Amino acid sequence: MADWDAIVFIAIVLVSSVICFCGHWPIFEGTPIQSLNYCCTGGCFDLLEKFVGLVCGARGRHVVSSVEHYCCERPNPILQLFYFTILGGAYFAFVGTSFQYIPGPYVSVVHRYLGTVSVVVGAVLFLLTSCSDPGLITSTNVSDYLTMYPYDGILYEEKTCSTCNLARPPRSKHCSICGRCVARFDHHCGWTNTCIGENNLRYFMAFLFWHCALCLYGTFVIAAIVAGEVKKRNLVHLLTFYYGVEPSLQKLSPYVFQWVLAFYSQQLLLLLFLGILSLLLTGFFGYHLYLVLTNITTNETYKWESYKRWKQHVSSSEGPKVTSVDGSASSSEQVSSPRLVGGYLRGAEFLGIAVGFSFLLCG
């Protein structure tokens, strides 16, 4: 049963990763992978709405639309609660399965306390990011934000937010989910249920860095626990002396892995869970660190991509109707960023949920 738990967990994570991050690639065009990617990044609600509409009529379709609107287009604590479920589930799984092996040959007793403190610090950083002001633009501070960055005449021109009825500072954006303008808007984070902007980006980066370190730390501690148990039970000596296994890493590894899988499957599952999260979070943190170092926001990356596509369209089009477009006058109208960010963020969130659920189910 332990073998199947590990196999199911690995399969779920690998398939979910390919679907979420590779499903839009041209190589998967017209394949089930592309369809599943569309489903995971927003199409599932469209399909559900059509199905319910056929079965229950307009009233049922309205209910599904309302649920989608609340879950995807309005501030809600769903992913915040799920974060605490995953954090608490992983911590108590570690306490219940691995605390008994601390201290060990490679693990000091200090890790009993250091692990708990690390989890608490991670939760505090999460709450700090969730509850801090992202840089809300109001009538009292809009003048300060207007002088913070210059207008570039391409992505940002002098204009007024039609919803807030306030002048829109450069690099700001009106978040349709929160219903407010945010200075130096980066993105709306569903996990923290708030926007990431000028004032809370530092907390968000600290949150990402700490959770990368936390997952890597947990991976190291569990690996050290398992290695310590292998040493305490003289497994290598037993395999080589009594069973005649050649004393080389290549020959011993399959037998050691089978033994660990048979007697320490819970630790192995937790190790895989934390290891995969470490890779995902490290990649996400590295991407955002790159954006910080290059002084660009997530929102601006998509705006620039949209602008480049528009410029390519203008340069490749024929006829005076298109080529006579005045870039300085119309660039801001043409560079309306498509809602690709939401799809990718929903894909990343779906992957995080899939990893979490597979861990909770298999654990």
Automatic annotation (TrEMBL):
Biological process (GO), any one: protein targeting to membrane
Catalytic activity: L-cysteinyl-[protein] + hexadecanoyl-CoA = S-hexadecanoyl-L-cysteinyl-[protein] + CoA
Topology in membrane: Multi-pass membrane protein
InterPro entries registered for this protein in UniProt: Palmitoyltrfase_DHHC, PFA4/ZDH16/20/ERF2-like
Palmitoyltransferase DHHC domain residues: 156-304
A GO term from the CC aspect: membrane
Annotated compartments: Membrane
One Pfam family per UniProt: DHHC
GO MF, one example: protein-cysteine S-palmitoyltransferase activity
Transmembrane regions: 6-28, 81-103, 109-128, 207-228, 268-293
Homology family: Belongs to the DHHC palmitoyltransferase family.
PANTHER family, per the entry: PROTEIN S-ACYLTRANSFERASE 17-RELATED (PTHR22883:SF286), ZINC FINGER DHHC DOMAIN CONTAINING PROTEIN (PTHR22883)
Domain remark in the UniProt entry: The DHHC domain is required for palmitoyltransferase activity.
The protein's name in its UniProt record: S-acyltransferase
Source organism of the structure: Adiantum capillus-veneris
Taxonomic lineage: Eukaryota, Viridiplantae, Streptophyta, Embryophyta, Tracheophyta
